Amino acid sequence: MIRLLIADDHPIVRAGIVGLFADTDGFDVVAEAASGEAAVALAAAHRPAVVLMDLRMPGIGGVAATREIVAASEARVLVFTTYEDDDQILAAIEAGASGYLLKAAPAAELLAGVNAVAGGHTVLAPEIAAQLVARASGAGRAMNAEPIPRLTSREVEILDLVAAGHSNPGIARLLCIGESTVKTHLLHAFEKLAVRDRTRAVTRALELGILPRQP
């Protein structure tokens, strides 16, 4: 069972999300929060595997709540919101969110996203990945003064598989290499991209045009 905390300040929306997971095998909604502060407190009290987090809520809001939850627990945060502003996307990911889905997504995509995040994968809605690509290739991205990191072909290949949702063991099997080798390549990529985790590595590589847009 995947233990879930649902954080959304709209009671009707929250009830709908809770109902979806309550009617689906494999999920247990252990708590509901209507503010960022409540989400932080309930995450500490109930230790969910995944926190489904709206961004704009009363109090500290979803980004700050994500940062506190990730810093204080092993819970993984999946942002689920109506907002797709570039700055909001990057702020949430830099705060430690493991994925970003829009509320317009079909129920099957949300269920799959929570399963993926609980399994240690990164989840980005196609619209979000496209925006990051557009941000990278836009005329105003001011990359002239900042050289693009030179990743090896293997590092790019592994990041592309991370972006597609594969775990480290899965990547090792696909490429017929050891899991420790996968981790080493990822650590080298993290260093070159100046990031600290898989999610930010993928989004940074998308921003810089190192990875192709996901289908």
UniProtKB/TrEMBL annotation:
Keywords: DNA-binding, Phosphoprotein, Transcription, Transcription regulation. The keyword Cell cycle does not apply. GO terms for biological process: phosphorelay signal transduction system; regulation of DNA-templated transcription. The modification 4-aspartylphosphate is found at residue 54. Residues 3-118 form the Response regulatory domain. CDD domains: LuxR_C_like, REC_NarL-like. Signal peptide: none annotated. InterPro entries: CheY-like_superfamily (IPR011006), NreC/VraR/RcsB-like_REC (IPR058245), Sig_transdc_resp-reg_C-effctor (IPR016032), Sig_transdc_resp-reg_receiver (IPR001789), Tscrpt_reg_LuxR_C (IPR000792), WalR-like (IPR039420). Transmembrane segments: none annotated. One of its GO terms (molecular function) is DNA binding. Residues 144-209 form the HTH luxR-type domain. This is Response regulator transcription factor. The lineage of its organism: Bacteria, Bacillati, Actinomycetota, Actinomycetes, Micrococcales.
